[in-house]
Amino acid sequence: MMDFPGFVHEVSVWALPIIFAITLHEAAHGWMADKLGDPTARMLGRISANPVRHIDPLGTIILPGLLLLTAGFAFGYAKPVPVNFRKLRNPRRDMVLVAAAGPGANLLMALVAALLLHLVPLLPDQAGQWLGENCVNAILVNAVLGVFNMIPLPPLDGGRVAVGVLPRALAYPLSRVEPYGMLIVFGAVFLLPLIAQQLGFAFNPVFDLIAPIINGVVRLLLSLTGLA
Q1: Of these residues, 10, 26, 133, 178, which one is catalytic?
Q2: Residue 26 falls in the annotated catalytic set
Q3: How far apart are CA 81 and CA 26, in angstroms?
Q4: What's the confidence (pLDDT) of residue 79?
Q5: pTM (predicted TM-score)
Q6: Rounded Cα distance, 187 and 74, in Å
Q7: Distance (Å, rounded) from C-alpha 89 to C-alpha 118?
Q8: How would you write the pLDDT of the chain (228 residues) with one tens digit per residue?
Q9: Domain residues of the chain, as ranges?
Q10: 65, 66, 70, 73: CA torsion to nearest 10
Q11: Looking at residue 70, what is its pLDDT?
């Protein structure tokens, strides 16, 4: 039988970190695009901390909920912020800055969460525990989201950064992968591990690759904030 109070507690300490990580990631893309000449996101109201403007029912609610129930962790995505790259003042350079703004926002949020951990001993026990769990989850979620999105595969942010900085002879073939990029990501992140599990062994190539980077980012943030 489900431990309903325990489930409610888990939701309460994961919901805010996930919602803010996803929401401000997308808002940062729109904010940067607006600063560089494309007002599309601003005109559509997407430069906002209001989660309602960014929520994708599947990626922001259903997927994290299912993962929390079945796997004990949560991950998700929001509606992509529309960017008209032709309106950017320097499209090739500015595409890199717009793409990098989302993961940059995640790293900033993880840093803020680490700083907030210093408040935990100053609060009553239950409030301090709740804030502490939220902050720890925020550090983890933002580190994962920031690093994962920098994988150099379009349409992930890292793919768009790579297209912007690589020589054109390499950038053009990479850009043509974009229509299939999310299928590749889905296969590597979910399908391959599921098949491997059915065959009796653990295999998750994406997270095996990025886990050391995520751990390094977390250690750096804790060191910068005096927590390690």
Answers
A1: 26
A2: yes
A3: 6
A4: 84
A5: 0.89
A6: 18
A7: 42
A8: 556 677 788 888 888 898 899 889 999 999 999 999 999 999 999 998 888 888 787 777 777 666 666 555 556 677 888 999 889 999 999 999 999 999 999 999 999 999 999 999 999 999 999 999 999 999 999 999 999 999 999 989 999 999 999 999 999 999 999 999 888 988 888 788 888 888 888 888 888 899 999 999 999 999 999 997
A9: 4-224
A10: -50
A11: 57
Of 181, 183, 100, the closest CA to residue 147 belongs to 100
CB 59 within 8 Å of CB 26: no
Q: How many whole angstroms separate alpha carbon 30 and alpha carbon 87?
A: 13
| Helical residues (DSSP H) of the chain, grouped into ranges | 4-35, 40-43, 63-70, 91-116, 125-149, 157-165, 168-175, 178-186, 192-198, 205-224
Residue 155, preceding peptide bond in cis (omega within 30° of 0): yes
State the DSSP string of 55-70. --IIIIIIHHHHHHHH
- Tokens representing 214 are 């995520």
pLDDT of residue 72: 52
What tokens appear for 185 in the block? Answer: 């990501």
Q: What number of CA atoms fall less than 13 Å from residue 158's CA on the CB side?
A: 13
Two structure tokens written together for 228 = 């390690």
Nearest to 71 by CA among 82, 81, 59, 63: 63
CA distances from 227 to 112, 132, 224 (A): 13, 13, 8
**Whether the Cβ atoms of residue 160 and residue 42 lie closer than 8 Å to each other:** no
Q: Between the CA of residue 157 and those of 99, 140, 205, what are the distances in Å?
A: 5, 19, 19
